[in-house]
Structure formats: C-alpha cells, structure tokens
Design a protein that fits this description.
The complex is a heterodimer of chains A (263) and B (281).
Chain A (H helix, E strand, L loop, with lengths): L1 H10 L2 E12 L2 E12 L3 E5 L6 H7 L10 E9 L2 E2 L7 H7 E4 L10 H11 L6 H14 L3 H4 L12 H14 L4 E5 L7 H14 L4 E5 L3 H7 L2 E6 L2 E7 H6 L4 H7 L5
Parallel strand pairs in A: 3-8, 3-9, 6-7, 7-8
Antiparallel strand pairs in A: 1-2, 1-4, 4-5, 9-10
Helix pairs in contact in A: 4-5, 4-7, 5-7, 7-8
Chain B lengths: L1 H45 L4 H5 L12 H31 L4 H15 L2 H16 L4 H25 L3 H9 L4 H29 L3 H6 L17 H10 L3 H28 L5
Classes of the chains: A alpha/beta (263), B mainly alpha (281).
C-alpha cells in the first residue's frame, strides 16, 4: 500500500522546479547550486541550522529577495514550466500566484476584514460587495479563524492574539487564491496550542495548495510534511520523503543534525 | 560576598533614584518654561482682546485698531505655503524613504538637512531676489513662497523618518499578496505612517506661522484687508513686531494680545490635526 502511494507520488507533476540555483548577498554566496523538484499539492519542509539558507531559498521562490539591494540570482526556478527569473517576468502577478506567510505575523494597520480583503481588492478578484464578503469569510474559514472573529470583523487586527494574527495572515494569503503557499517559520513565535492549530491547518490546506514550509522544529517537519529538504551552509544536503529523512537518511550529515549532534 | 552584594545594591538604588529625580526635574523644567510663557502671554494679552480687536485693521495710536487683516494675511500665507509645501515635502519624503537609497537620495537628503539649517531671513532674501524684485513689489505670494521653502525640507525629512519606522515586514506582507510597489506605499505604508507625517506637517506649519524674518522682505505689511496675493500682505508676526517696537503702551498691549491669538491659532491647528489623524487601527 505504501509502495503504491509513493509510486503515485512519483508520477505527480512537479509544481516548482529549481535547477542549479546560486544566490548572492553582495559577494557572499548564500545558496550553492541548488536543484529540487517540489511536487504539486504536497507539503515540503525545509530544515537546517540557522543561517543555512533555507529562508533565503524560500524567498527566491516568489522573488521576495528582489526587495533587498545587492542580491543576485543565478540559475533557474520554474513554476508551472515558466522561468520566474526570465526577463520580462511580471513579479507582481507571480507573487499573486505564490502566497507567503512570514515568521512574524504582519497584519496591516487595518480592520480584520480589511486585512483579508486587501489582496482581493488590489487584484480586483471580487465581482461585487457581496462577493467580497463571501471571499473574506471563506478565507477566514479556511484559516480556521472565522468563528473567533466573525463578531468583530471591523475591529483592529492588532487586537488579536499572536496565533490569531498568524492565522489572519494565512487567511489573507488564501484570499487571493494562490497556487503555492510559502511559510517562513510560521509557528516559531507561537505557543504549543497555537502551533498545533497552524500545523493542522497546513495539513488541511494541502488538498488545495502546494505548501513549502521552513521550520526550525524538526518534530513539526515530521508531523506536517511529505518531503523534507535538509540544508546546510547554503547547500541542499538531502531531499527525500519525510519518513525516510527522519528514519533512514541517505546522508551522514542529515542523521547527525536530526539526532541532535549539532545544530 | 553577601556584603559587597548589598553594598552594590544600595549604590544601585541610590544612582537609580538620583537619575530618576534628575530626569523628572528636567521634564518639569521643560513643561514649566512652556507654561510660564503661555500663562504670561495670556495674562498680558487677554485684557486687550475684544471682537473689535479681532476684526479691525491697525489704526493710528489712540483710535483703537486691531489685527483682523493680520490674522487673514497669516492664514492666507500659511495656507498658500501649506498647499505648495506639504505635497512637495511629503512626496519628497516618500521618495527618500522608499526609493532614495542611492547617490541621488543621499544628495537630496544632505541638501534638505542643509536647507533646514539655513536661517529663515536668508530664505526671505532669496525670495526677495527671485520674486519681489522682478514683480516690483512685496506680495502675499512672495511671503507664502518663502514660508513654503522653509517648510519643504522639514516636511520631507520628518516624512522620511516616519515612513522608515514602518516595519519592512508590513511592506513584504503586501508585496507577497501581489501588490504593486505604488499600492504598497499608498495603501499600507502611508496610512501606517500617517500620524507621524501629520505631526511633522503640523510642526512645520506651526514653525512657519511663527516666522517673522522672511516675511519682512517678502510680504512686507499692510494696513488694510487684502484678499489679493499679488499685493503686500499683513501677518500676525510682522504686526506683533510693529506693535511691540512701537513707543506707546497701548501698542505693547496689542502686541501681547496678538501674540496670544497667534499661540491660540497654532494650538488649534495642533489639536485639529491630532484629532483628524488619530489612530483608528
């Protein structure tokens, strides 16, 4: 049975395909020759010690690093067969397709409703006011936040708890109907209960979205992901099904890291 | 060991209380000076204020007279300066904060800082040469332009500082939703910085409302109500200067009253802007 599922996965289309990616902050090389296939509608976890480049790599997938002066990219990242670093790529529409959730929740200084509505409004997705409301409600439901905020949609987003703010940011990302969701340590600042909610959410969202999640928490990686990539010093050391990475990794380095010999 | 610990503890407590008292005393000093000035102005000025005083134009000594035209002139020139200076200043500040991390931005920043430090009378002379001499006379227009010039660098730099305080995380959050740069700045960054920008704008307006020197060369003064910007125009500050330097006691009393009105106007602007830009979220 397991065999069959894994065989099925082999045939799954890859959503994001990275080949020979190098990344530089000025003269410092942060990523070295990374190649990877991220399959559609699966959860891929990036693990590795601090400064290993996993967040940097995540941010190359929606070209968020473009906002940092002095950075440079070599190699190819294709999403749905389109090279996102090709000249003439519309970064704005790329980012609409690739949602992102950040380490620190970053709600806008607006109401709860307007936070979720923002992406819908700027992209002109909604047909009318009723449709906008429907979309906001759906996004909040999908982010498992609706019941907690439905009575105070016009209250400030800053009044929410840390975990709620993070789920609001997830709802905000879901509202623009992305195909991929990038999560940069989404639960690292949250307590265990809020973390559990986010993790359940990640597993739940998998049926509709391709998810890439950076995490410091190895248990979290093993709980939520289908595949795990282990990074170290800007290199991709191992990329395998999560179960394999945690039980029988190919690389000695991976084993050392997972068993806590360094990190 | 325990003894040295408690000795240190005692010393720490002493230093802490001395410093707290010192800072509190300085805070009291600052507020006290302000209160002293305001209350002194109020005491000296209040008795001379009447409706007539607020409406009348200056008259020969002994026939009463007021500051109606001066209030109008101050308001008109300040408004003209704000209409010109605020948009330019705010937009320049946005540029410096969001796009100005290059040599051009650095040059603009340096020049703006220099311009803030230029004495306002120099600005007056500059406008005199540029506008007054070609026009052949002093005018409200020239006065307003001089005030705008004083205002622009202040507004630009405070706007820049306030926008820089908006966390990058917020910008990235909006960019990640597929917002184009201009919408990020317009819908997210500016609202988040609005209170600070308004405070900067208000400080600049308060500053130019209190300027005298640049107006002496540019707007001069007028004894009449003047609604036309191409004519010499009276202003509260120049009128206060004239009244205060006059030889008669009645004139001095009117100078105090006009000062009180000036401070009152600045206070009202202050409260109004705070109210309009109060944080809603």
């Amino acid at each position: 049975m397991t065999y069959r599922i894994s065989e099925l996965r082999q045939t799954m289309r890859s959503k994001i395909s990275v080949s020979n990616l190098n990344f530089y902050y000025g003269k410092t090389q942060a990523l070295q020759d990374i190649s990877m296939e991220i399959p559609e509608r699966e959860v891929v976890a990036f693990i590795g010690p601090s400064g290993c480049g996993k967040s940097t790599f995540l941010r190359t997938l929606n070209r968020m690093n473009d906002t940092i002066a002095g950075t440079r990219v070599e190699g190819k990242v294709t999403i749905d067969e389109q090279n996102i670093y090709a000249s003439g790529t519309d970064v704005v529409s790329l980012r609409r397709k690739i949602g992102m959730v950040f380490q620190k929740s970053n709600p806008f200084p607006k109401s709860i409703f307007e936070n979720v509505a923002y992406g819908i409004r700027i992209n002109g997705i909604h047909k009318n006011k009723a449709d906008l409301h429907e979309r906001v409600e759906k996004a909040l439901r999908d982010a498992a936040l609706w019941d907690e905020v439905k009575d105070r949609l016009n209250a400030s987003a800053f009044g929410l708890s840390g975990g709620q703010q993070q789920r609001l940011c997830i709802a905000r990302a879901l509202a623009v109907q992305p195909q991929v969701i990038l999560m940069d340590e989404p639960a690292s600042a949250l307590d265990p209960i809020a973390t559990q909610k986010i993790e359940e959410l990640v597993v739940d969202l998998k049926k509709d979205y391709t998810i890439v999640i950076v995490t410091h928490n190895m248990q979290q990686a093993s709980r939520v992901s289908d595949k795990t990539a282990f990074f170290m010093l800007g290199k991709l050391v191992e990329f395998n099904p999560t179960q394999k990475v945690f039980q029988n990794p190919d690389e000695r380095l991976t084993e050392d890291y997972i068993t806590g010999r360094f990190g | 060991m325990a003894e040295t610990n408690s000795q240190n503890h005692g010393r720490r407590k002493l230093v802490s209380s001395v410093m707290t008292t010192l800072t509190a005393a300085c805070a009291v000093f600052v507020v006290a000076v302000l209160l002293l000035i305001i209350s002194y102005i109020a005491i000296r000025g209040f008795s001379s204020i009447s409706v007539q005083f607020l409406i009348d134009t200056p008259k020969p000594v002994g026939e009463g007279g007021g500051i109606g035209n001066a209030i109008l002139g101050s308001v008109m020139m300040t408004a003209l300066a704000a209409v010109i200076g605020l948009p330019i200043g705010v937009l320049a500040g946005i540029y410096l904060a969001e796009f100005g991390n290059n040599w051009y931005g650095n040059v603009v920043r340096f020049l703006a800082d220099t311009l803030v430090g230029v004495p306002s009378i120099i600005i007056g002379i500059f406008i005199y040469t540029l506008i007054v001499v070609p026009m052949g006379r002093q005018s409200g227009l020239a006065g307003g332009l001089a005030l705008a010039l004083i205002m622009i660098p202040i507004v630009a730099r405070t706007t820049e500082e306030m926008i820089r305080l908006v966390p990058d995380a917020m910008r990235e959050g909006a960019l990640a939703l597929g917002a184009p740069q201009w919408r990020v700045t317009w819908n997210i960054v500016l609202p988040a910085a609005s209170t600070g920008i308004a405070t900067g704008a208000m400080l600049a307006i308060a500053r130019i409302t209190g300027e005298t020197a640049p107006l002496l060369f540019t707007a001069l003064n007028s004894r009449f109500y003047n609604f036309y910007l191409d004519q010499p125009m009276s202003s509260l500050t120049v009128q206060i200067f004239n009244y205060a330097t006059g030889p008669f006691e009645v004139e001095h009393a009117m100078a105090w009253a006009a000062t009180l009105i000036l401070v009152g106007i600045i206070l009202v602007i202050n409260v109004l802007v705070r109210f309009l830009t109060r944080k809603r979220f």
